[in-house]
Every structure is written in C-alpha cells, then in structure tokens.
C-alpha cells in the first residue's frame, strides 16, 4: 500500500475484507483503480472483481494471487491485470506506469483516490 | 490482461523476507528520489513515515535481522557485516523519516545519506535503474 501511495502520489484506501471494499466502491466517485488479493475474508477478490466489472466496467481492477488457478479465474472474470505472488516492487511500479502514467489519464485532484 | 510477478511454476504466498526486501527497496527509492530532488508532497511524506516505521519495527522485532534474509555478505558467512548492514538500514529509515518530517538537511547529512545508500545498495545488489521511473516526477 505504501508503494502505491508513494508512486501514485494520491490517497490509497485499504479495507480488511471484500464486503467493506465493495461498500466503498459502490460510490461511483470512490476510486478509479481497485487492487485486491484473491484471498479476502467474507468476499473474495474474484467476487469483488465480478461485481465491480458488472456495475462499473470502466474501473480498473488488478488482482493478486498465489496460485495459477487464481490467474485463470482473474482472466475469466475480466481483470485488467494479474500480479502473481511473490512479486517484486518493480511489478507494482509497472502497474502504476501502465494504468496511471501511460494511459490517457485525466488530471486528478489532490484529494482524489 | 497484463500479467506481472512470479512465473506460474514459482507462485507461492509472500513470506516475511519478501515483504522486508520490498519495503527496503521502497525506502531506497524514496531516499534516492529525495536526493535527486523529486517532488515530495504530503501523501509521499506519509508513505515514507509509514514505511520507515514498519522497517524499523521489523528490524527490532527480528533482533536486528529479518528472518531468512540473505544479503550478499551474509552469504559469505560474514555475520558481523550482516549486523552492520541491518544497522545501516535502520539508520537510513531514521534519515528518511527525518526528511519526511521536514527536519533540516544540510550538506553533511545529505552526504551521509548518500554514502549509507551506496553501502546498502552494494550489499543487496540493488538495481539502480529501478528508481528511474517517470512517476517520481509527478508532484
């Protein structure tokens, strides 16, 4: 989380389970990019991904997982990126580079997430 | 779908040393970015403080070392140097936190920070190109 906050230079919200994350994401103005582990309590990352892509297909969803099956499931559910564990800090920077720096991103307010 | 991280055959859960190395690399990047005078706003300062607190805590809780961590010098069975390496990491954490908390940094402190960084990077074979990322230039 510190890696993302530092590199994106924007506030990064974190949640301990999928339900809390979904409650926050339901606000269309809440977040543009969602990063989630596949293994999450109460609601796993795949279910969260399905809900986000169903309701807000423009939001970018990045999943992290520790098993090859997670990668296949993430692809089928429409993830924009998959980070296989264990990963290097450079992989997180590449995510930022791909989805924040290099895309045609609208200028963000300092208070945006 | 963009695919990053470990190859499928090497996938596993993150271990404590994976997290420690990532946090250490982040600390090095934060410090180098400061020395190169990249922009440093409130969000980045907060991230620096959180990262340095975690690193310092892990070193203290691990009695001066992260479990299973192997620096180049430790692989040579140089336990004394290994101890010094972790003290250097701890010192760098203190230096970076001081930067984030806007404590005064003169020539000698900057030089000490740079020397400390060089010693740490030599020990962990850190890829110096890693921190040359364009996002660092974003205020």
Written overview of the protein:
The complex is a heterodimer of chains A (113) and B (139). Chain A has helices at 2-8, 18-25, 45-55, 68-76, 89-101; strands spanning 33-37, 60-65, 81-84. Chain A is an alpha/beta fold and 113 residues long. The longest helix of chain A has 13 residues, at 89-101. The radius of gyration of chain A is 13 Å and the shape is globular. Chain A starts with a helix and ends in a 12-residue tail after the last helix. Chain B is an all-alpha fold and 139 residues long. Helix content of chain B is 60%, strand content 3%. Chain B is built from five helices and one strand. The longest helix of chain B is centred in the middle third of the chain and has 22 residues, at 79-100. Chain B is globular and about 50 Å long. The model of chain B has no long low-confidence stretch (mean pLDDT 80). Classes of the chains: A alpha/beta (113), B mainly alpha (139). The A-B interface holds A 2-3, 5-11, 64-68, 71, 74-75, 79-91, 93-98, 100-101, 110 and B 1-8, 10-15, 18, 22-23, 25-26, 29-30, 39, 41, 43-44, 46-48, 50-51, 54, 130, 133-136, 138-139.
């Amino acid at each position: 989380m510190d890696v993302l906050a530092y590199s994106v230079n924007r506030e990064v919200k974190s949640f301990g389970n999928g339900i809390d994350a979904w409650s926050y994401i339901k606000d269309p103005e809440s977040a543009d990019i969602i990063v989630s582990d596949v293994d999450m309590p109460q609601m796993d990352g795949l279910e969260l991904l399905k809900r986000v892509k169903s309701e807000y297909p423009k939001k970018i969803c990045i999943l992290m997982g520790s098993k090859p099956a997670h990668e296949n499931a993430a692809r089928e559910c429409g993830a924009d990126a998959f980070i296989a564990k264990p990963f290097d800090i450079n992989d997180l920077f590449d995510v930022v580079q791909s989805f924040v720096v290099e895309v045609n991103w609208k200028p963000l307010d300092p208070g945006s997430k | 779908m963009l695919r990053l991280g470990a190859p499928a055959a090497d996938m596993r859960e993150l271990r404590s040393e994976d997290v420690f190395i990532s946090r250490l690399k982040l600390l090095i990047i934060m410090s180098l970015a400061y020395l190169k005078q990249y922009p440093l706003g409130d969000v980045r300062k907060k991230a620096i403080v959180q990262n340095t607190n975690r690193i310092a805590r892990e070193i203290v809780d691990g009695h001066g070392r992260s479990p299973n961590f192997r620096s180049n010098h430790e692989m040579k069975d140089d336990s004394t140097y290994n101890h010094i390496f972790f003290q250097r990491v701890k010192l760098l954490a203190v230096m970076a936190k001081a930067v984030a908390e806007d404590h005064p940094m003169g020539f000698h402190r900057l030089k000490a920070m740079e020397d400390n960084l060089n010693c740490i990077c030599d020990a962990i074979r850190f890829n110096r190109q890693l921190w040359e990322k364009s996002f660092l230039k974003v205020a």
